[in-house]
Protein 1
Amino acid sequence: MTGHDTKGDPIDIGEATGDAADAAHRGTSLEAGLAYLKDQLRRLPQTPGVYRMLDRRGDALYVGKAKNVRKRVTSYTNPSKLPERLRRMVAETALLEVVSTHTEVEALLLESNLIKRLRPRFNILLRDDKSFPYIHITAEDGSAPEGSPKRWARIMKYRGSQSAPGTYYGPFASAGAVNRTLNALERAFLLRSCTDGTFSSRTRPCLLFQIKRCSAPCVGRVSHGDYDELIRQANDFLSGRNLDIQRQFAARMEQAAEELEYETAAYFRDRIQALAHIQTRQDINLPALDDADVIAAWHEGENTCIQVFFFRAGRNYGNRAYYPRHDRSAETGEILAAFIGQFYDNKPPPRQVLVSDAVPDGELIAEALSLKAEHAVTLHAPKRGDKRKLIDHALQNAKEALARRQAESASQRKLLEGVADAFDLETTPERIEVYDNSHVSGTNPVGAMIVAGPDGFTKNAYRKFNIKSTEITPGDDYGMMREVLTRRFARALKEDPERDRGAWPDLVLIDGGAGQHRATVETLAEMGIDDVPVVAIAKGPDRNAGREVFHLGPGRTHSFEKADAVLYFLQRLRDEAHRFAIGAHRTRRSAAAVKSALDEISGIGANRKRALLHHFGSVREIARAGLSDLEAVDGISKAVARRIYEHFHEQG
């Protein structure tokens, strides 16, 4: 069996040691775990690799890397030298899997990837690792026909894999930071931001041209040569050569003023102000820093906040806070090392990574990052100078963010305790699941589940359910809820029958009245689940918010005082479920509209549909397109273009 490292070269993968069938019956005690690991030692390679410790269900407990796998696993067989956390891990270990790699660097990269994918319980885990937005200036296609939008580069916000041709700048810490920068860049360089479909359909300049945020290449208001110069200036500015650009603009402004061309002078003045706006909104700027990430960890007991500041071309692109999950015994350097590996698993590292504390295996991590980035990456914990001031600033931000989070967590805990008191729950709920349905007259029905707990909304646990049953009468809310609950809990029974992984709810909250409560309880009972508390939240008289009635069971209801904080909390949960359900419904309805509009046309398969949508951006733009515009789409012949054109004209 073979796998691949990050560069695509094959690596050898060792066989899983032990037998999965035996593991399922093996006991969970420290003695049993130690005996199993000792028995496997002679089979383990004395080479670099990654090992996975699995429990008897086959779920990952821990993923680790080693220069010598046998030597590392041997260290787990001496319980007197293990902390309590690792003793618990060894006690649950029923199966060991090993992946051999060519080098320790490859092992480190693979370890980070597996930790993010498998999320083992005993590893330090990075949570909420969302993708970052970038600014993308697309590449011009000189071979495209004259008048094609492909001939004119576009500036846009972008997330995802950077496979499309062009230049990418970032990452930015938030969408807001990108939007503000894009707004200023449009005013400074007048680049188009519209989709190719919108570009192709224009016959006169749009509003952005009128407010001096675009040079209107769509209708020929700027030549190719002048537009290429604007693109060059934008790339120079984003690459850090901003002073040169500002000097050029200032010189041309002064020249225009001397020649009494005041409108031209005002034009360059506005562009200079737009560039200044970008820089003044970026708080700390350090031109000598060039490309770097500043990573600082503030650690208190079992809680840590890690702040990451992004500097590109000497400018601050914002910061983001992370709260990794770890054991109380974890050291700050250990937390940082685990964070860095997982953080850069799906994003390119800059040339410098500045950290608040020295990390174990720092040189190895730097080598792994260099291999991934295909350029030299340094990992450094500065002790003095401007770089240390940046670290101190990031540490202060981390400290304050952790204090705010702990305060919010304490407040959230009080609200959860209030929920337990109000509904007579045995324990304070750690996981509340809220369910709602959305449809329009029974069409495109969607069920939704949101999750909340001590840390607020757990958005990566949200789920949507496209209602599939053909036996449900359109508009049958009870039938839809039964399908949603059956699918949700059938999966829970299959994946976590012993309820020890934190994925089972301590409370199920339903948007509805006594009928919805009864349908929910009956559905769960049919699956053998009778110990999950269910509460249905019904709007009060005249659907008045603040007068909700909570149904707890036959003849049992609860109401809150109108100003009760727990009531507001439960209303927020219901409203969040409602928002998520409506969003899921709109997405399904839009997909159905696309399908019905294009799939009714003969000769339009998946590839042609994709080409049309990529070219025009939406079905509306396809319907508005002229015959020549349709013929310009890759893969659309004249005959097919006429068929599409006639279809939409027949539709009115």
Protein 2
Amino acid sequence: MENKICFRRFGTMLDCSRNAVMNPDSLKKWIDITADLGYNTLLLYTEDTYEVDNHPYFGYMRGRYTQAQLQEIDRYAAQKGMELIPCIQTLAHLNAIVRWPKYAPHVDTADILLAGDDAVYDLIDSMFASISKCFSSRTINIGMDEAHMIGRGKYYDLHGDSDRSQILVEHIKKVSEIGKKYGFTLAMWSDMFFRLATGGDYYAKEAQIKESVREQIPDNVTLIYWDYYSTEKERYDRMLTSHEKIKAGTWFAGGLWSWTGFAPHNGYSMNATHAALTSCQEHGIQDVFLTMWGDDGAECPRFSLLPSLFYASELAKGNTDMQSIRQKFGEKFGISFEDFMLLDLPDTPGGRADEICDAEKYLLYNDCFTGLVDSTLSGGEGSQYAHCAKRLAKWENHPQWGYLFATARSLCETLSCKAELSVKTRRVYEARDKEALKSLIDEYRTLLARTELFYSRFKKQWFTENKPHGFDVQDIRLGGLIRRIQSCMERLQELYDGKISVIEELEETQLDFHGDQAAFRQKHVSFNSWKQTVTTNVI
């Protein structure tokens, strides 16, 4: 008989707030797969992507789940023996609603609600009222993470300089009372307790939480220690010990890296998960889940993380034998473990699979003329991506998972043209070689065709897994990329035809992406920002 999961709760958390709102059919598929692997919990992270009674602008045009959809998903999860837990925000990370005049007066600063404001607590009450009708679980994650500027905006104007830890505690107290009204036990991210005590560092070794703060944490509030970054068990040991000193019953949230570009990071996820789960077992942590965020566009498909998802479930059952894990994965999914891991390739085409990088995103959006991230290139990336595309082609016709490989292959084929194109463009421009310029223009035509094909495959992948809302951002980004490639090609053609003699962007001296001209050649980096990659101008 197969070993059982060693934790009371063992689950995943799907980010449905950063454009990619997983559609109900895909959610059911996710529940089927994770329940079969032994997971018994699913958290839906919804900042504003759920229906709140009497708040029509809450999640407006964002693909929010209707109450009927959430009720249906909750029933389906229960049938599979899985607890569906709502994961919302009651302090920060509410940037999508503050754009509306209805909510703007009740914001402290940035995306942080104004603590102490009666309208804020009316809104939170409405959140709880709606959530309580949709979820059978009486446990809720109330967020409250990364409110770095709490008390420094409108709150400061109203109340002056205040103890920010006390502002947080008083807010938690009021939210906890609302939670009690609806019968909820609350779990919250713990980082703000540490950040306020250390000046901003969550993982500081000498964090000292005031006893007065510790004593005021409500009895129906549990802390969640989140850490996705470390591959060293020592940090998890230290942080779990620190949390237990604040309040017993700490939850742990690790990460399956889905939030840095188009490709997953299964390799790094497994290294971090091994260290984290080993520590959690030794510390007797009972509630563990693995987050899957969608930073800066949520381009990465969640199902591409199946290797690390499977690996984590085997660790939680006590199986650390990689040969056994690989064999069981292949038997279950019909693709070998090693081949499914090929989906990691676009991130580090010539590097190690256990590094964090999102080269496939910033090289895709790196401008053909300005080349802001050219200094991260060392040469040969184009041929590396061509090789990756050939390796990914093996599984693109798989009946269930082929769409993942087809999209990844098309991305790599695009990057085989695009990765070094800005460098080559500058080199050809400086040489003023007409034959080389003619050949370069042909490469731009090839790139356009491949980018269009990638767009179509990525669109199919998105609509397979997600609601259509949020793809407008991809239309804007990829459509803008296609038009920019065309524009650059047209200007190169004008140069070839003698209609212009200068391309001003190519006349400028490039500065190093890292800010150090002496270190102009750098290895690939993790830089997941479309906005800062495509231009230095204002968007």
Protein 3
Amino acid sequence: MKGESSLTRARITYFFRETFRAHSKDEYSEFLTRGLGDNKRGIAGTYPWLYVRVFFALFMLFTVNVVILRITGNTLYVPTVTLLGGVTFTIPFMFLLTELYPKRDLSVVKLFGILVIGGTAACALTQLGYGVIRLNNPWYNAIISGFVEEVSKALVAVAAIMIMKNKNSYACFLIAAAVGSGFSVIEDMGYLFYYSDMVAAKYGDIRDTVYLFVDRGFSALCTHVLWTGIIGWAYGFGKGKYKPLCFVFLIGSTLAHVCWNLPLEDWMHSTAVALCTIVTVVCNVVAVRKSLFTTMTNEYIEIMNDNIIREAKAMGERMRFTNAANLTFALMCSFLAVIALALCCLPIGMERMLVTYSDKDEFIAVVEDGYKLNADWDRKYDPDGKNFEERYIDDGDGKRLSYCVQEVVFDGYDGTYYYGYYIGADGEADAAADSISLELESLASRIPCVEYAFGDETEWVFEVNETDYSSYTYNEDGTVSAVIDAVAFEGYDLLIALVASAVGVSGACFVILTAFSIKLRRVRDEG
């Protein structure tokens, strides 16, 4: 028990050393050339470290470009924000999974080629499936999307595994995960581009772009990548007597995807997502660990454990302070980047902002300012009713009524309604009203009834709310995104707190880094 505890502490120490120490060009070259030329044999035996650097670089670049887009509103930065936002989480995660693979028989270059080509092929198959099977019911759409997307990714993943001809179950997992990563990147870039181009560049409202970056980024770590990866692992592991295992995990991934997309209430949806995440992560961790122990011989594990303890103990004081300084600098930059993104989300200097409503009914309720209104276009002309307004024409036989407006008050509905009708030569009106307007006591002018389009459906709406909703979009998931006038910024306490935090963190890290520098100089002089 004591030996296991010592080994665990040594592993953690060794992990941080490998992650944050300076790495040579040869180490970069060794990782990037695995599976190519003479670098195909043996076990790598190193702890993951490159994924942290990739994430840090992408996250910093995304933050800088978001700040530029927020300040300038230059649409030229939308593609850059879209690209960086789509890859910042997924690509480093793929690097991590690849670094965990101990053998050198799988090319990193080919793996990321599969990510691009396989992800594109999976997206193409998915759109083909959507073209054949499409329903407007959100519950059916959740089932269809889960089935179509998982089957499409699985077909491409199995094809890629067969082309690569690698029989190792963890290698099959990586190949399939690469297909899922490519699919996830393309999908995330689509969402980010839509919201960045529609609102961020035009009105300076970057909130949805940042929200999607975080939401889609973190969800990518437990959705498409792992859902497809576990199918690939099952295919590689079950080639013998466990052949049905691949279909079992395909069904499981499809069910997880369907549960993730179900249009449930907030707490129910959060519960379903949490359960899907737990099940997905646990299954993948168990599969990866099993594959790692199968890949690495017991003899090599013992040698590696001895090396870990020996190298961890041999790690000098200078190396520890260097690693700590690197970690401090990385944490400082990351924290400042988070504060910069938070500041970009504050409505400072914004003229317009984007608001997303859960469905068209919520959007209509806001446009109609909560009033209970009735747009009865089927109301017939009442020849015995009182005409509020009348228009006559002279057709040669004398004047006759050609158009009239009737005033109506409905029980249970707010306001007074005015229906316009054209009257024919025979004195009969058209079957239905030609126009409807509404008069409310709170407003001086009448409100016309306007037709709003929501996909293939239309609704007639009274524009009671004076907020400008002329620009709105009905999304495929049933939500409605509307551009409205931005509210006046009042959160100066939050602004002060964010700026003070940035200054405080920068100052504290500067002091720590200075102390590390002095300590390292003393250690160097003593050595």
Protein 4
Amino acid sequence: MKNKTIQSMAKRVAALAMAAVCTFSLTQVPVVKAADKLGAGKYVVPITSLKSKAPIAAVNTAFNKAFGDSAEVNVDENGNMTALVENKHMVIDMMGKYHANILTVEGAEYLSYKNEQSSTTFGNPSKIENIEVPKTIKFPIKPSDSGECKFNITVDFMDHFMGGGKPKPTEVTMTLDFSKAKVDTTELKTLLQSYEQLKKEEYTEQSWNAFDAKRKEANSLLTSGKASATEVKGMIASLKDLRAKLELVQELADADYSKVDAAIASVPKDLTQYTDGTVKALQDALQAVVRGLKENEQDRVNQMAANIEVAVKGLKKKPASNNGTDNNTNNNTNNNTNNNANNNAKPNTNTGNTALDKNNLKDGTYEVPVWLWHAINNQPSMAAQSLNNTARIVVKNGVKTMYIYTKSMKLGNIEASLQELKIMGANGSYVNAKVEKRDAKGNPVCFSFTLPNTNEFLKVKVNPRVAIMGNQDIDARLRINYSALKQVSSVQVTKPSVQSSYGASNAPKTGDYSNSSAFLITMLLSAVAGVVVVYRKRQAR
């Protein structure tokens, strides 16, 4: 019997010991705080309560929403936390309505301020003054397991009521609901919105592509709604870095054209001795030269030089003719050489009485009438008044470069200048003309481009960059009167001829340029002016 009793007691002791061990073990399991689940980054965390130790119910009622409904909580790499809150004005209803404001927060940084009303005398709610108080407050927090954050503050009302006008610190408890914390994407959204005004064409292709790819990645991250704080923080840093690395095209140095110039210099003076096919290939390579490119397109410039070099090496002489024609060829060559020498000895002037061969111009500078023509109809373009009617052609080593001159013009109530000019090349694609000179306002007044051919009409695209017209390219043509081509000397090619004028008043008339067409143009100008007036009124509202 005693043995059974002893055994029963032993079992009970063992059970109690086991329970004690289990209880001890449970107390050693660490409690996981809600705040510990947050990685480094910014979060929006609900404020469930804000309580003061002040033993006045009316004070606590007003004080409960003094920091609003949520706080922006920032967690650094070491887990340290700060809270960013908006300081709200309080009205304490206690035998009258008193105006109160939080003045200081323990360890805080005050990011902005505002003016608010403040009650100065307890018992007399009408005694009010305007004071400056913090608006945005940032301060360190150390949440408890339940999200409670304790710190000291001062309130103007408490200073007057309980401190005799001196600071009266009060301990408060702010409780944050970390279980409902959301990643703060405000900064990322604001950053992306600020990039919407950036224009691709103003930056180098390589720097823009890298930036734009990261921007698209950021938008996808936001759209997913599953971004972590670490991802958002990293995305913001990457975007800012790539934005800083964007390279403006206009700030780049000019490309080096020395190889192109050397290749052009190697072109034989007399191309008549070579076969038409090989000469055509050389002319195509010469006409494909585009001036004014920047250093980011140096490879393209080098390729232009290489194409000319290949074409020069590929020149093949025409087969020798029989029946004494060799002697005639030699005689003709000698005569041509002598004639050229005599011509070179003469002044570089030509009144236009002697027709020049537009396809075989020797090196020099020439002037030729030119007008801006409608893309389809045989009449001047609406923007014809912006173009000087005398252009220049500079021939060097067989390459013809045309210079044209522009000025500002008015379309109804719109004043605009030609900002961009594109020329259709031999391959059907358009290339940008180079801006050689600008006026005091920065508007181009002289463009240059390699002539793709010597036809009467050249297809072009012009763009005055007028917002009401859509900032778009407009199809047009350059009409060139080669029959009046003349050679000149001692001119500055970036300045228009002093004897020239602007517009198309001296342009040859065609059957399609009738009074009815002029009337339609006038009507169109009036319509554009009307649109501008409406547009300006809307903008003014």
